[in-house]
Write a structure and sequence with these properties.
Layout lengths: L4 E3 L24 H20 L4 E5 L7 E7 L9 H14 L9 E4 L3 H13 L3 E6 L4 H9 L3 E5 L5 H12 L2 E2 L2 H8 L8 H9 L9 E3 L6 H12 L5 E7 L4 H7 L31 E5 L1 H15 L5 H19 L4 E7 L13 H7 L4 H13 L5
Parallel strand pairs: 1-6, 3-11, 4-5, 4-7, 5-6, 8-9, 8-11, 9-10
Antiparallel strand pairs: 2-3
Helix pairs in contact: 1-2, 2-3, 2-6, 3-4, 6-8, 10-11, 10-13
Length: 386
């Protein structure tokens, strides 16, 4: 069983190497044994994509008379259960082909959980150790999944220290700090190659509104929204991209102010999205709109999804769903028709002790009642509360 470790704000090295500083001198890149290992590792990661079918595009039940269709791209059906499976595969291929991931050397990642679950899976696939540096508040189910796939969990008290602790562990072990928050937007091929954006448009091609009016994508690293927005512009679509942001996150504030240096003191309660800083992979100039979504609205929306479709999803899905409902209400008020797409990012069984627990809501002082009424009122009438 992997051992959970902990670190507070203290004890972090004063000087931490940046992403470009990597220990690579301990491997002879021309060694036939290393080249064979590398080819086999790349083959195994690529083979995973061939074994996985595309994820489903589900239709949320809205009145036909509205002339608006809402779709949910169900990324929870990936082998590791979340949208982050795509990202982890891309990051591993990127790290392997750059010579950063090496036999026997650990891969280390700063994560709020789901990326670490997926990266632990790929690390086990190619036979290298994996260490996830995560906030102590990460759900217990995620830590169990990381350990199930052979990874270790290094828990920190202050979410803002995950970056420094990850870099320090990589330096001390001679491993590779994957750094999803820097490399998410560059490791993914946004021009196509069956990325999530291309998949959405392919699946919509026989629907009554094949080119969506809006795609709504929440931001953890910012890589998914960057991939979708870049693909939209590259393919010359008219689709607009909205990025909702939860409480205790800096993406919205940085986007509004045009300031990439904004930061906040508290960590997000909506696991998988929301960051205490604007991450390098977030590309604010590529997107069209942002919304600030109260955490109570997120929970109300994800519970409404369970009532209306029998689907229990993670909190980040609720953030995107609330924003999608608001956009649809605006379209109705303006007399517009079309389609809207958002994401089911991961399954709700990872959060039974949080977003589906009334005790947790009470502990957080979170009253979802007015937001639940707003959602049900919208779904019944199409009107958005003022």
């Amino acid at each position: 069983m992997a051992v959970r470790q902990s670190a507070g704000a203290g004890g972090v090295a004063d000087e931490v190497p940046g992403p470009a500083v990597r220990r690579t001198a301990d491997v002879d890149r021309s060694d036939p044994g290393y080249r064979e290992w590398l080819k086999e590792a790349v083959r195994k990661v690529q083979a995973d994509a061939n074994r996985s079918a595309d994820t489903h595009l589900l239709r949320f039940p809205l009145p036909e008379a509205w002339g608006i269709d809402l779709y949910l791209k169900d990324e929870s059906t990936h082998p590791t259960g979340s949208l982050k499976h795509r990202l982890a595969r891309s990051l591993f291929l990127y790290g392997l082909c750059n010579g950063w991931i090496r036999p026997g050397a650990p891969v280390i990642e700063a994560s709020s959980g789901s990326t670490a679950v997926s990266e632990a899976y790929f690390a086990g696939l190619i036979g290298v150790p994996f260490i996830a540096v995560m906030p102590r508040t990460t759900s217990a189910q995620k830590t169990r999944l990381i350990e199930f796939h052979g990874g270790q969990c290094h828990l920190v008290d202050d979410p803002r220290t995950v970056y420094e602790v990850s870099a320090r562990l990589a330096r001390e072990t001679g491993g590779h700090y994957m750094d999803q928050f820097t490399y998410a937007e560059r490791a993914t091929d946004w021009r196509g190659n069956n990325n999530i954006a291309e998949s959405i448009y392919q699946q919509l091609r026989l629907e009554r509104y094949p080119e969506p009016a809006w795609i709504v994508a929440t931001a953890g690293t910012g890589g998914t929204s960057a991939t979708i927005a870049r693909y939209v512009h590259y393919m010359q679509y008219d689709t607009l991209v909205c990025v909702p942001d939860p409480e205790n996150s800096c993406f919205f504030d940085g986007w509004v102010a045009g300031d990439p240096e904004v930061s906040c003191e508290s960590g997000s309660r909506i696991e998988g999205i929301g960051r205490p800083r604007m991450e390098p992979s977030f590309v604010p100039g590529a997107i069209d709109r942002m919304m600030k979504v109260p955490d109570a609205a997120t929970v109300a929306s994800v519970r409404a999804l369970e009532r209306r479709m029998g689907i229990r999803a993670g909190g980040s899905t609720g953030t995107g769903l609330w924003s999608s409902f608001k956009i649809i209400a605006e379209m109705l008020a303006a007399g517009r028709t079309g389609s809207v797409v958002t994401l089911i990012c991961d399954p709700g069984d990872r959060y039974l002790d949080k977003y589906y627990s009334d005790a947790w809501l009470a502990e957080q002082g979170m009253d979802i009642t007015p937001y639940a009424k707003a959602v049900e009122g919208f779904l019944d009438t199409g009107a958005w509360p003022c």
